[in-house]
């Protein structure tokens, strides 16, 4: 990162650490979950020391995710409240993906897509945690009837797949939108970047000054 | 068993009563399922509880414990009043036609000749009228008012369905349904088998319960036929062998009997047992008693036994009374018996009134226990808290434990319920210092003989002269013993028809008991086992299961006593002319020259039907006895007597005579009986299929299957007492208490008896204070110290208890 | 634990063919509940042959013991006191254990390759050395049979004595059953035997006697003869119409390809998008604005 005093503070250090903790836990969960999900992904279990370790670790990493994402949730929940402008933004998201952001309403610190992702992830994780507890054979499954465990299995698998898709989208959009990975890594963004992608936030931070 | 296990498959109707074959004899029960599956047999179960046997029965009827004579007496009444008897059989093969002594009477629960203070009968009037020809008088028309059939009708006319229902608590329709099904087997082509066990024997009227069923079988013509018979299911793998070898205190091997103290004269002793026929032309096989007896004495005393010394008759103990276990413990309790050798037996657990037993053993100077396990008896002096609350400091008895092998650790034969002697081979080495029982006894014997030799002593003769020609004196082999039981020729034996022809040379093994002699030229340690080890070798080890008739008579599989015969009295399977009643179940038949067939004929092989010899050759009459003469303690016809502890405190048939008037009750034990008011529930003890007595609680597998002591009660009683399944309850009788987990079940229903409701409390007895299962109370803490009047088998099946939630 | 390796038809979590050069006869164990006296000899024989010992427990107020299947008790007798008509008590005793489904839910659910296998004779076997202990087989089983060991976190169940059967012997429970209530042979022969038994039962008034060989799992290799085949649930909860179930089918059926496809689609979509649309960068205009 080029040192530049003009750069805007986008994410604080604790926020960034939190994000990457969540990200790291999630990636481990996704890999181990996929290993248990489909024979095609089973070799991924080798990353964890084999099938048995994968089975043992996955739910504990899940616990780590609950705490890390829980903390993130409380940090961002107010910021992620969707405003009418965000909804408007979402309605125009297609155009933007097509490369035309002329009609986009001005995004704040976070745009509508980011906010929606936040809530979708929160919902997915709630479902994953709840179904995961039911499926956690070593400690909890005996508390539930088979029908509940079976439902949980479906919910866990479907939600897991959904969440992985969301995160893949999230990652892609981070790659697609240049410099945003740097933002989450270093916490600062260039003013031009801010004006380009989050004009409302840019104004709020600078009063429109360059 | 008069028949055998495999033969059960030939039955059309199977009655499981006085036993729970599926529970206690699951392996033999396969023949019941076989009869059902391939002979379309009907299975009836009559029991206080809906048992495992009932779970596969076609029909189940409940009955109050201890009232089987009333039930079966009712069946007799039904058969007679509905004319459902096999007439020709009854007339020809039973004593229905015999005329009874004029003095015989039955009135208000007592037969003629009762001696009230002595609690016994003068049985002289329980006899036949003797005709001018010196034989018993008969009336072929069976119309004579004193003929057995008429007396039988009269006796059981009181046992109406209503009376049965009132006494037994069996609903009338259920009783009649059982009667109807039983009655179908009066047809000559249908057979019924009774399967019973300790559910009949363990009552103060146990022998008579069995007799009543036997009478039913005689009336139906089911004795001696394939698929019929009276089939006692023996409770240990070799308990049949125990009785055969005379291990009861008043018996000698082969059901010969010990003399009483007034029988000091050999000739009188033998003459009394050498029964002459009481009807013309009958075999009366006990006429051969001297041959069996002399051969036994030759086997024991060899050359020392001679005609001149009456074959050592004087050395036999002369009994002043029967020394059954109850009697022995009674003596012990009063300090009159101070040494006890207890071999393969756990009396503290297995006999009634544990408190009395424990006190009795505390009086002993020494107790020797020969057993593979550390039994409760061998630890009776240990304090095990509530389960055996004794003070070891006050018990001075010296206990010596001699570890023995178990059956799998030695060669030998086991005699099963069907009288088959089956040889088995050692499967494992005994652990530690365990020795075969034979070696232990041989060691004691040799040591005693040495002591007598060295130090002398009173009456050494019987011990010093005993034959002991074993290859290794301190370890006689099972093979040597088996050969000794079979017997051998002590001189060259010739053919009776051709004295020049030598049948057996001196020293050769006998072919069978027909070769026994009363002149000292044969020996046999147990005449009924003769034929088990002949010159051809060990017949018990034969394993050819070919079954040419398809009836299960595998004559080349092992050896069945007597004479390898599979169905006793099988001559009765034919009509008087020698033709089978039912050609499909031919066991034997007269082929014009001799008796032959798929079984060994239980008959004089060359006696043609025209000679009129009758099938029950062990009886002096040659026929089955509906009227038992003087053979039973409490009467020639079975009569319903209540258990000594009865929940109704009366006998609806004759309130003045409630319980067995001829049963022996020791002083002090009468006071230990409880009354219905204080102890309202009918207690009964029994086995579970998961365990064998008090042995298998030492085994982990069996303990896993049934780990903890429990008591079964019906849902209604549980509700009344506020007891839920799994609660701990206390059960107590007038003699003590136990605590156990409650199993609440629909399988025990309250019965209406004599106008009142009777609940049963079912008490499985397998737990104790030794072993790997959860410790429990010895169930015999509860049971009364009284036995059957004939056998003294304790009344474990019927007593009174009370219960409460702990 | 098995001796077979030439005649496997299916392995869990495996998408390639299994070694199946050898074809073996389809077998079945027939449990004739109407002949069963509940002696528990099968329970003992099972523990003896497999050399397992459960704990010495306690009495729970019933005759059943152990009261449920465990990792050491692969079969248990279940006792039900049933009154279909008032006053007419029936004591229905059923030997419970793995049914060896033709379409086994455990195998379907198992994520560990080769932890659950099915032989061509129909036996469904667990290979515990491949088991990862997730318990998905328990979730997948329509009969609630597999049990997870607390000791080693592997699942265990009846193997139908696959080791004995491979050597031409009958299962240990069959060998020991004293009344012939449990028999073993080709499935065809067992169905024939069952027909005979049903004819006998019908002649004794059990109009609804029948075979339990549920179609919902394509039949089983442990089949029952029941007196009341119309009411299997009275036999201590034998499922009336067992099947792998919609949820498990969804989980291990549709979800697997659909989800994999979705993930692939997201990845592909992203790639195409990037290639066709290029990155989302700060516009030249704004860059210029801030360059000043």
Automatic annotation (TrEMBL), chain A:
Entry superkingdom: Bacteria
Cytochrome b561 bacterial/Ni-hydrogenase domain mapped to chain residues: 10-185
Cofactor(s) essential for the protein: heme
Gene Ontology MF: a single term: metal ion binding
Localization, UniProt: Cell membrane
One GO BP annotation of this record: formate oxidation
Transmembrane segments: 20-44, 56-74, 116-139, 151-175
Record-linked Gene3D superfamilies: Transmembrane di-heme cytochromes, Chain C (1.20.950.20)
Keywords, sorted A to Z: Cell membrane, Electron transport, Heme, Iron, Membrane, Metal-binding, Transmembrane, Transmembrane helix, Transport
Membrane topology category: Multi-pass membrane protein
Any one GO cellular component localisation term in the record: plasma membrane
Family classification: Belongs to the formate dehydrogenase gamma subunit family.
NCBIfam families registered for this protein in UniProt: formate-DH-gamm (TIGR01583)
Name under which the protein is recorded: Formate dehydrogenase subunit gamma
Taxonomic source organism: Oryzomonas japonica
TrEMBL record, chain C:
GO MF term list: 4 iron, 4 sulfur cluster binding; metal ion binding
Any Gene Ontology CC annotation: plasma membrane
Main subcellular localisation: membrane
Stored PROSITE patterns: 4FE4S_FER_1, 4FE4S_FER_2
GO BP of this protein: cellular respiration; formate oxidation
Cofactor binding mode and count: Binds 4 [4Fe-4S] clusters per subunit.
The organism of origin for this protein: Oryzomonas japonica
Xref: PANTHER family: FORMATE DEHYDROGENASE, NITRATE-INDUCIBLE, IRON-SULFUR SUBUNIT
Cofactor: [4Fe-4S] cluster
Positions with a binding annotation for [4Fe-4S] cluster 2: 46, 158, 161, 173
Domain (4Fe-4S ferredoxin-type) ranges: 27-55, 122-151
Skewed-composition ranges (Polar residues): 11-21
Protein name as it appears in the record: Formate dehydrogenase subunit beta
Superkingdom field: Bacteria
